[in-house]
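We treat protein structure as text, and this decision shapes the records that our systems exchange. Below, we set out a record of this kind in full and without editing:

***
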Amino acid sequence: MKNVILVVVVLFMSAHVFGQTLQDAQRELDNENYFKAKQILLKLLNDGSSNKNEVAYYLGNAYLKSDDADSAKMFYQRVNDPDTKNALNLVAKGRVALLQKNSTEAKQNFDLALKFTKFKNANIYFEIGDAYFRPGIIDLDEAIKDFEAALAIDNKNTSVMLELGDAYLEKSATDPTMGGKAMTEYQNARGINKNLSIAWIKEGRLDVRGQIYDAAIDVFNKALQIDQNYPIVHEELAEVYFYTKQFDKTIAEFKKYVDLSPGDTKAKTKYLELLMRNKAYDKVVEEANKALKLDPNNVDFLRYVIYSDLELKRFQEGSDASKKFFAIPNVKAKPRDITSAAKLAAGIGDTATAMNYFKIALSTDSNNCEMITDYAKVLFNARHYADAINEYAIKKSKCTMTVVDIYYVGRAYLILDDSINADSTFADLIAKAPTYADGYYWRARTNLKIGKPEDFGALPYYLKYIELQESNAAKYKSNFTEAYDYAGAYYMIKEKDKAKAKEYFGKSLDLDPNDQDAADFLKQLK
C-alpha cells in the first residue's frame, strides 16, 4: 500500500515542480524544507536525465527527516542495486542497517564507503556523520568526527559547517565550550555566503537554547530580511513568541509558516498543535475542518477536531468526528482517542458506547486515574450503581479519591438502599470536606432511613446543611423546603417549641408558597 501511495505522490508532484536540479533539492534539505525537497526529488525520479541512485538516496534522507522511516528505507533500498558499486550505495546500505538497529553492519558499510573513496570524499564523510546524527542522535561523537573530517577535506562547504555546528550545540549539553564552537561554525558559514538564511536561523536557535529570546527574535528577523518567504523562519519566530507569551504574534507567524508550506500536512499539524496549546479550540476545529476537505482521512486532523470538540463540550460534533476516525481502515488509535470517544459518547447520552470505549481503554491502561473516574461516573449515570461502586473501589485502591468520587459512591449506596454503607460513606465525605454542604444534605436523607422516625436522627445534618448553604436557599429551593420542614417538625413534635417551629415552616413557605406540608403544620400550631 505504501508503494502505491508513493507512486501517486510522484505523479502528483511531477506536475507541480519544473526545471529544478538535484542541487536544488540538496539545498532544500540543508534548509530543512523537507517537503519541498521531496517535491523536487520525486519529479527528478521521473526525469530520464537524472541519476536515479542519487535521487533515491536523497529521497531517503528527505523522508527520514520527515519522520517517515518506512518510506526512507524503501528509497535507500532502491540505491542498493547489486549492479551499482559506488560509495553512496554503501552509505544507503549503512543507513538501512541503522534503521534496523544493526550498528555493526552499518559501520562495516560506512567503512567500505570511505575506503572506496580513498578517504578523500567530503560528501561521503558528511553523509555518514548525518546518518549518525539525523533525525535522531545515534552516535554524537562519531558524527562530529565525520563532520570534522569532511570539513578538513572541503573547508568552504557551508552544509558541513552548519551541521557540525549543530553537532557541537548538542555536545554543549555536557561540554559548555561547545556552544562557542557551534556559533563559530554558523558565523563561518555566513562569512562564505552572506545570503545563507539557515545560518542565521541556527544562530537564533542557539540564543533560544540560552533563553536569550530578544536576541533570537533579532536574529530570526535578519534571516527574514534575506528571504521573507522562507517557511522555517516563521516557525522559529512563532516558537519564540510562544515562549515570551506573545500569543497573537505566535499564531500570526505560524499562519505564515503554513501558508508558505502549501500541501505540507506536517506544517498544518504543527499549526493545529500550537492553536491547541493556546486553547484556541474554536480555531483548531475551523482550521482542521478546512484541512480535512483536502485530506478527509487524515487521522491527525480528525484528532484535533475530536479533542477540541470535547474541550468545547460539543459532544455531538465530536462524536461524529470520532466515528469517522474509527471508520478509517487500519487506524492506529492512541489511548486519548479512545477516552475522548468515550467521553463524547457519554456527553450525548450513548452510555453503552461510552462504557465499551472505557473498557477498551482501561484494558491497556488500567492505572489511569482520570479514566477510572470518568468510567465510574458513566456507570453511575447509566444507573449501573453496583458497577459504579466497584469501579470507585478500584480507584480507591490505586488513586486518591476526591470529594466528588466519595459523593457518587454514597449516592449509589443510597439508591441501592444500602443505608449503612451510604451513611458511613457520607460520614467519610464530611470528615474529608467539613464545609461541603451536600455531604450533610445527603447524610440527612440517609438518616431518614436509619433508626426510628421519632428520634429525628437526620436533624443535625439538615441544620448543618442550612447553616452552610442558606445564602443559596432560593437556588436549591426543593432541598431547603425539605430541610426547613424537617426542622420545623422536630421543634413542633419533639421540643414543643412553637416559635421555633413556626420560624422554620415560615421560611419554607417564603421559598415555596405552595408547600402544603408547611402550611398544614402551621395551621396545627395556631
